[in-house]
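Subject: Sanity check before I submit

Could someone independently write out the structure tokens for this chain? I want to compare against mine line by line before I put it in a report. The sequence has 91 residues.
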Amino acid sequence: MKTVRAYMLVSGRVHGVFFRERIVQDARELGLTGWVKNTSEGKVEAVFEGEENKIREILLFCKEGPRLAEIENVEVKYLSATGEFEKFTRR
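---
Independent answer below. Compare away.
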């Protein structure tokens, strides 16, 4: 399976609803590397690297979010993987 990189930006009610925590947990379980963080504009930003099918899987979750989240928009850009990350982290 091809290794890819995806940059994601989620807007809506995504702070204070365990969105980042769930992304960290799911990304690690899927064997993805990269990072996730809250932005000062109230969004969640992430970079994922790994097998394309596993990235698609986590992006499906991100489009729904955890139960308390209200997702307005999910922007995704696919890029070439760089291999710069050793694990998936919270920033």
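---
OP: Matches mine. For the report I'm noting this point. The radius of gyration is 12 Å.
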